[in-house]
Amino acid sequence: xxxxxxxxKSSDPPPFRPRxxxxxxxxxxxxxxxxxxxxxxxxxxxxxxGRSQEEVYQEHVPTGEPPIVIVTVIDPRSYSASYxxxxxxxxxxxxEKHGYETFIVEAQDYDTKGYQQSWAKVMAMxxxxxxxxxxxxxxxxxxxxxxxxxxxxxxEVVADPRVLESLMIRDHPVVPPDSIIKTxxxxxxxxxxxxxxxxxxxxVADSVLLKTGDWARYVTETWMDPLYMSYNFQKAERHAxxxxxxxxxxxxxxxxxxxxRTMASYAHTNLGEGYREGDFVxxxxxxxxxxESSCEKESQWYWQRFRELIVQM
Length: 313
Description:
It comes from Emericellopsis atlantica. By secondary structure, this protein is of the alpha/beta class.
């Protein structure tokens, strides 16, 4: 009987091939990915449910102390000391009667980067918002203006939501006479955060009431953005404000437009609605630094009348 010989092993074996590591590497990469996903999910769960209610951002609610801060920027380099004293005393005596605060600063306190010095007004408003976070409102009132009814509070004149509701001019061109951008129709008094009026040419940026809060800070920071400062608007910060209001619905949505004589009557009637006895504020817009039409000369009657009224109180 013949038996088959078992096959011989080749004397030339194939080269050694190490065991493939492809699958273990894939498994490691997959495990690492799964681990990262789990960490992300756990982090999201912690953010949504683990943080306390106090850690969630909430806008600061002012205490109303002081209720109103009157902001005025003066220019001692150009105007006489006697005139500027009357302006400051007008603000201070009025504020003392009602428990308000004054924030009177010099234009030179602010660096306007070589642009018009009037930009200091916007910077002062932003400064006052930071300095008095608990005030209900800041009221920017120009240097060339006088409060004429010391017995009346800002709240009863315009700031109280119910009073404001009765004064607001709705669905009206922001820039007269025929701007296609108009004030909101359905804005409520309590929702308004900037109270302003118009003259013959546009918004009166020299008497502005701002409700303190995030929106006011946003508006002032946008208003004094270097882009607008460098744009060389003809009337600097006034035209910049008109541009912002017309192009930014976030700003327009909280603008309350009121009749000019509410808080910005003009001594010169060719520029806007003229001052009448009993008006809250007179603005000497158009007065000059010196000469016959100087602000100091034009203010004398108004300053004397204010002192008479303050004594009567």
